[in-house]
């Protein structure tokens, strides 16, 4: 990127690889191996200080400390209520995940689907853990959160009531990988009760790092069976939700309305000239099965050859059953599919199960920050007011090129993850991630996948500063101001931060009288000015002369863009004022500065403006020292740039 004449431009490059940078992030900074080694050395069992076994870990409402469901709960390690606990019995299977007293069928259906693919499951449930040699009461799991893998450590104290696990359990009662995974999921989200209700796709994404999509089964859903076969063959996770107009309830035909099921297999067979398309589903309860056509006890199985019947039919109350496609379409209204992202899982699955080329990026909604042109706020409401989730959650919007649809329109659903699969003609497209409610503040990742090459760039400015803004403006200092400096400085001939504050309060008095609004500079800002223009702890006269020249220019700039003479600026006026002062910033830095310098009313007063522009002057001066002739392009990693630009 070329720089203009008389300008210092900062080019941001990808962060340099650091040791372990490609590994998972440690949740709460807890390192499993280090914790385990320390516990073994001290001969104690791990007790997690970040997720203590107690009432707060259970929940806040129906599972709150005073709730009926929380009475009689004990927190016990597996060996305290099970004779021979095992982390994994032989191998992991979908019958290892049976729902307990928590309404988290959406999570458990996703976990059951995960067991179909050992390669995926080993990423979430790292091998080598157990209750034998080396047991220290600590286990760990890896979950995908906000665009990266996170390693979550838990102790093995589980909620038990009347001698039985309250929540998820295995069909083999001495197997505990599933209850401990559930605890890790509760920890990363704050409590067990947070999992009471959710979307299966959210758990799919958390277990794989893939991209979840929701298919609404309308108009007979042509091509659905072939689509599901291909998805399962490519190691996609698949689930379905039964129709309901009044919550979760059991029907006479063995289905549970308003309930999440795993789709675990497909099979196509012929009875004479009749083609039969079967789907295999599993109830995460581990019981309660479909009793209609092709159920375990259905006489239709008798018409099949013995080898087919033996290969497909398992007559056991394990929650798993077969159902014909037409019955499935009659009883279910949505299908959730999670396709695997290449960067989330490393090597591509056999058969090309990855999603192709992608362009990941991270951004943030900032309350009160207006976009370029001042049109709409960064944290404004979405189209139709339905994108996103309540404040404190985050949103992922994905546009992909593919064979299924339609138009490149904004999805309309209140979910954490929002995806859209599109077939797009060659051209230029604008993606605008948005939250449902105005004022929501959150980080969010945006991922764009395509089968063919594409270039995705943020609509943004370059980061640069005019050299004139970095030079000291020539402003003759009034004799009385110089005399005041000498009186305050005394024999040291340099000002401390409190002395500088006193001097500026007097020197800026005429401007305050003229505008009618305060122009006070606090001690903390004066300390920053000493860092930027002085020795760090004091300010000599020639340093103050430089600072005073800048202050007069900044004061005039502030007055120009404080159009309503309120003594404050909004985020858009701040961006214009910084631009007029010679600083050209990108969206990310503008967001960071807005968050740092605004007050509770989302406004920036004169003192905050001075602090902001002084900081930018200091940063760009530092960068220009690394250039021949003082102008050109400086390359910084994104992380380093935010560190120096925001003093973080």
UniProtKB/TrEMBL annotation:
Record keywords, A-Z: Calcium, Hydrolase, Metal-binding, Protease, Thiol protease
Region feature (Disordered): 372-394
Annotated ranges, domain Calpain catalytic: 45-341
Gene Ontology MF terms in the entry: calcium ion binding; calcium-dependent cysteine-type endopeptidase activity
GO BP of this protein: proteolysis
A cellular component annotation (GO) from this entry: cytoplasm
Name the UniProt record assigns to this protein: Calpain 12
Record family assignment: Belongs to the peptidase C2 family.
Positions annotated as active site in the UniProt record: 105, 259, 283
Listed InterPro entries: Calpain_cysteine_protease, Calpain_domain_III, Calpain_III_sf, EF-hand-dom_pair, EF_Hand_1_Ca_BS, EF_hand_dom, Papain-like_cys_pep_sf, Pept_cys_AS
């Amino acid at each position: 990127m070329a720089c203009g004449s008389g300008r210092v431009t900062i080019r941001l490059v990808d962060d340099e690889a650091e040791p372990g940078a490609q590994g998972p992030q440690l949740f709460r900074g807890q390192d499993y191996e280090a914790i385990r080694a320390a516990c073994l050395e001290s001969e104690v069992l791990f007790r997690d200080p970040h997720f203590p076994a107690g009432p707060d870990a259970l929940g806040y409402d129906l599972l709150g400390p005073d709730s009926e469901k929380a009475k009689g709960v004990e927190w016990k390690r597996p060996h305290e209520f099970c004779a021979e606990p095992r982390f994994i019995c032989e191998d992991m299977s979908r019958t290892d995940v049976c729902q307990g007293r928590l309404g988290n069928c959406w999570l458990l259906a996703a976990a059951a689907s995960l067991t179909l693919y050992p390669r995926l499951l080993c990423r979430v449930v790292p091998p080598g853990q157990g209750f034998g040699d080396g047991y220290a009461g600590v286990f760990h799991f890896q979950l995908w959160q906000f665009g990266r893998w996170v390693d979550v450590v838990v102790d093995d104290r589980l909620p038990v009531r009347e001698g039985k696990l309250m929540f998820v359990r295995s069909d083999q009662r001495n197997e505990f990988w599933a209850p401990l995974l559930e605890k890790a999921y509760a920890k990363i989200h704050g409590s067990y009760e947070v999992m009471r209700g959710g979307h299966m796709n959210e758990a799919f994404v958390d277990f794989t790092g893939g991209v979840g999509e929701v298919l609404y089964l309308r108009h007979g859903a042509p091509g659905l069976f072939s689509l599901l076969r291909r998805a399962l063959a490519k190691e996609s996770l698949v689930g379905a939700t039964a129709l309901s107009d009044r919550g979760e309830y059991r029907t006479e035909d063995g289905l549970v309305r308003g309930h999440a099921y795993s789709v675990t297999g497909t099979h196509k067979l012929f009875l004479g000239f009749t083609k039969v398309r079967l789907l295999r589903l599993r109830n995460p309860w581990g019981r309660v099965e479909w009793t209609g056509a092709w159920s375990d006890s259905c006489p239709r199985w008798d018409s099949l050859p013995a080898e087919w019947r033996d290969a497909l039919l398992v007559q056991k109350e394990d929650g798993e059953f077969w159902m014909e496609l037409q019955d499935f379409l009659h009883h279910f209204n949505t299908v959730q599919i999670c396709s695997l992202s290449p960067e989330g899982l490393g090597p591509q699955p056999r058969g090309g199960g990855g999603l192709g080329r992608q362009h990941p990026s991270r951004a943030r909604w900032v309350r009160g920050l207006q976009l370029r042109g001042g049109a709409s706020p960064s944290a404004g409401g979405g189209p139709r007011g339905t994108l996103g989730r309540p404040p404190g959650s985050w949103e992922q919007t994905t546009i992909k090129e593919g064979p299924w649809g339609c138009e490149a329109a904004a999805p309309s659903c209140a979910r954490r993850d929002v995806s859209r699969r599109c077939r797009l003609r060659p051209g230029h497209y604008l993606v605008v991630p948005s939250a449902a409610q105005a004022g929501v503040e959150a980080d969010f990742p945006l991922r764009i996948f395509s089968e063919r090459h594409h270039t995705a760039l943020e609509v943004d400015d370059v980061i640069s500063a005019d050299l004139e803004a970095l030079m000291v403006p020539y402003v003759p200092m009034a004799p009385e101001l110089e005399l005041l400096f000498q009186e305050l400085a005394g024999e040291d001939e340099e000002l401390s931060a409190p002395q500088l504050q006193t001097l500026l309060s007097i020197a800026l008095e005429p401007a305050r009288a003229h505008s009618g609004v305060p122009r006070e500079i606090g001690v903390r800002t004066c300390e920053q000015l000493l860092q930027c223009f002085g020795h760090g702890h004091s300010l000599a006269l020639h340093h103050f002369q430089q600072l005073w020249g800048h202050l007069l220019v900044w004061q005039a700039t502030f007055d120009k863009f404080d159009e309503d003479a309120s003594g404050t600026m909004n985020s858009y006026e701040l961006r214009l004022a910084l631009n007029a002062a010679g600083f050209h910033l990108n969206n990310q830095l503008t967001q960071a500065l807005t968050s740092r310098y605004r007050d509770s009313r989302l406004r920036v007063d004169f003192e905050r403006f001075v602090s902001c522009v002084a900081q930018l002057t200091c940063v760009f001066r530092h960068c220009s020292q690394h250039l021949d002739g003082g102008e050109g392009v400086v390359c910084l990693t994104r992380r380093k740039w935010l560190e120096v630009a925001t003093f973080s």
